[in-house]
Design a protein that fits this description.
2 domains, 8 helices, 2 strands, 63% helix, 3% strand
Length: 280
């Protein structure tokens, strides 16, 4: 007796969402660095890209990101899946930037085609990818509770100018703590909306009316959830001693932070030499 062959089912590739402000579990040297050092590294690389946005600088920073990610044992699953619409948008940008022309050029028969516009577009994209990689490393290796005390220590010199640094730090700390919580709430609201039965819309006017009604309902529900979460967070902060405790945690750099900053400055100096060699 033969059994009928079963056809293999097509499985849909599982997409990985973008997860922010949630560190990857681990106890690597990168995880143990002071949060202020990581913020300074982001600022240093931002200034470096502002003055030296060449290919050499981009390549060095990308190598730095890959080495640090390897040292921090960041898994590949931490990378989000790029949606198809973003790929289409990138290809559309490349097509529109290609006619810009400029050097370098190559000849196809009697026609000379310039690649300056396309290379400039790719350079901007790779620069953004490198800078986002540095920011992602901070998000993957830093606890949210460590950022506010670090910012408070970095902003201590500005207190002499009578700037409300403590208020800014408390606002930043509450924002960073509330962002993952609210994003999870909004995902639940979106899933509940998709599961709710909807009447069939036969005309375009009915479809637009249904979409506008759903949008208003989602905004009202999101505001209600945000206010409820804010009230719960306020009660928790009051029970723990007030908002001043957010920035009162001990936070200071160590020897490993000095080594990390030396490596970053070395990357900056090497990129400066490479940029001068390329322009000379």
């Amino acid at each position: 007796m033969t059994t009928p062959q079963t056809l293999p089912k097509r499985t849909r590739r599982r997409t990985r969402p973008l997860v922010l402000l949630r560190p990857v579990p681990g106890n690597s040297p990168v995880h143990r660095l002071w949060a202020g050092t990581k913020l300074i590294v982001v600022a240093v690389f931002s200034v470096l890209f502002a003055f030296f946005p060449g290919w050499g600088t981009i390549a060095l920073v990308m190598v730095f990101v890959l080495v640090v990610a390897r040292l921090a044992v960041v898994p590949r699953g931490a990378l989000p899946t790029m949606p198809r619409s973003l790929w289409i948008l990138l290809v559309f940008g490349a097509v529109t930037a290609a006619p810009g022309g400029g050097g370098p050029t190559f000849d196809v028969g009697s026609t000379s085609i310039g690649l300056g516009g396309l290379l400039g577009y790719l350079q901007v994209i790779m620069l953004a990818v490198a800078l986002m990689g540095v920011c992602a490393l901070v998000s993957w290796t830093t606890n949210v509770s460590e950022i506010a005390p670090a910012v408070s220590k970095l902003g201590r010199p500005f207190k002499a100018l009578r700037l409300p640094v403590d208020d800014w730090v408390v606002t930043l700390g509450l924002t960073l703590r509330a962002f993952p919580m609210l994003s999870q709430e909004f995902r639940v609201l979106g899933a509940a909306r998709r599961l709710r039965p909807r009447p069939d819309a036969t005309t375009r006017r009915e479809r637009w009316r249904r979409r506008s009604t759903e949008l208003i309902d989602m905004l009202a529900t999101a505001m209600t959830v945000s206010l409820r979460r804010a009230d719960e967070m306020g009660d928790a902060i009051t029970a723990r001693g007030g908002s001043g405790q957010i920035s009162a945690l001990p936070s200071r750099p160590g020897t490993a932070d000095a080594v990390a900053m030396a490596v970053v400055l070395g990357v900056c100096a090497l990129s400066f030499v490479v940029q001068l060699a390329a322009s000379g």
